[in-house]
Amino acid sequence: MRAYEDWVIEAESKGKKLSEVILEDQMAELEQTEETLFERMNNNLKVMRGSVEAGLSGTRRSVSGLVGGDAAKVEEHRKKGNSLVGMEISGAIAKALAVAEINACMGKIVAAPTAGSCGVLPAVLLTVEEVCQSSDRDIILALFTAAGLGMVLTERASVSGAEGGCQAEIGSAAAMAAAAAVELAGGSPRQTADAAAIAMKSMLGLVCDPVGGLVEVPCVKRNATGATIALAAAEMALSGVRSAIPIDEVIDTMGRVGKQMPCALKETAQGGLAVTPTGRRIQADFL
Amino acid sequence: MAKSNVFDLLGPIMVGPSSSHTAGAVRLGGMARKILGEEPVEGTIFLHGSFAKTGKGHGTDLALLAGLLGMLPDDERIPDASKLAQEQGLSVKYEVIDLGDVHPNTVKFDLKGKTGVHLQVIGSSIGGGTIVIGKINEYEVDIRGDYPTLVVLHQDHPGVVAQVTLLLATAQINIASMRVAREKKGAQALMILETDQTIDKAVLELMRKLPKIEQAMAIEPL
Which Gene3D superfamilies does this UniProt record tie to the protein (chain B) (predicted)? Predict the structure, then answer.
């Protein structure tokens, strides 16, 4: 079984970025050249940029009518200079909402790691890009770091809400985004591990309780809050704050908590917000 | 669980809203179509667990059907699958089923092809659009659609495995994984091989002519 720690140690000993170690691993595993892998990952980046843009400017609504237009509201509010939390955080919130809304409206997105959590990673990376003036090459590399962590999450735990609850989806996305953000901002491989661990720890136990079984409420807004948790975790790690519990143990914990979670709280729409009086009324009205 | 790669985690590029309930469902339908080996004309789709409970809201029914029609997860015609199935002469009905201790996102297909091939396939969408086919007819399998896959139905007899692998070796086809299972000693058995290279028609024809081989199908990766 993979351990993220192994990659951190390898990157440290070779004096490389974590993404470069993962890239080498994948070149061997997939028997593809660096150029091919870069091009494939660049396609993901292009679709991510497209979904951010479409969601920010668009006025699309989901079939149920529950979702759509919130990204544009946040974008307008911040552009008027009204942001409470600053332009970076407000920008990440708007971008995450944008992508998640596009997904709910049956538009084209990149699952990262899943469709329900597709807004977190593009929102965080494109926000760091604005702050750090990152190159496309570095963003693509950071995507490899995110995906590498995702591989460990899949193998040691799960990225499926039906198996592990929302901690496995938005939680995994936030951990992946935190690690990628740290690398993109110039942090060390060790700091990517700390950021991922801090983000994942903040998400442990989060249930998957979609109202009406739709990937809309509360999923879309959890993408936005997940992005802010990723940025908070990255900020701590970049400052030198360590995670007391190492990343692989946190991932194992997420897997264990997911198994302990009752079926009603794992994407079945039989618990949590889905069974509130309002949740039930929404389900009855729209389905 | 099995080894994944970076593009399992970032990807697929897909039409929303759910990687497991929409994209994975399209792939399960597509895989069932590939296993059937011909255009399906009639079928029943049995929905288990979360597929049964929340499938409607995720368009799982349409996605499974779109896959049976040969669409891919980024096909923007997925919402119109019902209408397209009608036009293409595929008639399906849906039922809820309890398949026991399987993944929550599991479906069973009962399919008839246009030349009369009849097949049952059970598969699960295990997250992020990744799928695994767990059963073909009464045989336990583990097919993920990542590699070209060879499925051989044969009699349980000494030397059958050797002649199959020898044929692959001669055709310069490398085996990535292999699994052999039988009902009971000397009865019917099933061989599942994942390969690095595509298994072309000529190799498959030679395979079918080998003694003790009852059926051989090559499933392209998805």
Answer: 3.30.70.260, D-3-phosphoglycerate dehydrogenase, domain 3
Q: How many domains does chain A have?
A: 1
Q: Is A134 on the interface with B (CB under 8 A)?
A: no
Instruction: Identify the closest residue of chain A to B53 by CA–CA distance.
Output: A268
- Element (DSSP H or E) covering residue B84: helix B81-87
Provide the token pair at B39.
């255009």
Nearest beta carbon to residue B13 from set A30, A44, A64: A44
pLDDT band, residue B211 (cuts 50/70/90)? very high
Residue B143 is assigned to a structural domain of this protein = no
Q: Give ipTM to 2 decimals.
A: 0.94
Q: Nearest-CA neighbor of B156 among B124, B129, B189?
A: B189
Q: Does A4 touch chain B (CB under 8 A)?
A: no
CA A204 to chain centre: 14
Q: Which domain holds residue B45?
A: 6-137
Q: So what's the pLDDT on residue B1?
A: 44
Question: One-letter amino acid identity for A22?
Answer: I
Instruction: Indicate which CATH number applies to the domain containing B59.
Output: 3.30.1330.90
Q: Decide if A125 is inside a domain.
A: no
pLDDT tens digits for A16-52?
A: 999 999 999 999 999 999 999 999 999 999 999 999 9
Instruction: Say if A61 falls within a structural domain.
Output: no
Q: Point out the residue among B5, B53, B58 whose CB comes nearest to the CB of A215.
A: B58
The reply to whether A71 falls in a domain is: no
Give the pLDDT of residue B3. 64
* Angle at which helices A136-156 and A247-260 cross, to 10°: 50
Helix residue ranges, H only, A31-86: 34-57, 70-79
Could you tell me the pTM of the whole model? 0.81
**CB within 8 Å: A159 and B128:** yes
Tens digit of each residue's pLDDT (9 = 90 or more) over B41-92: 999 999 999 898 877 777 899 999 999 999 999 998 898 899 999 999 999 9
DSSP A128-153: HHHHHT--HHHHHHHHHHHHHHHHHH
pLDDT in tens, A223-236: 999 999 999 999 99
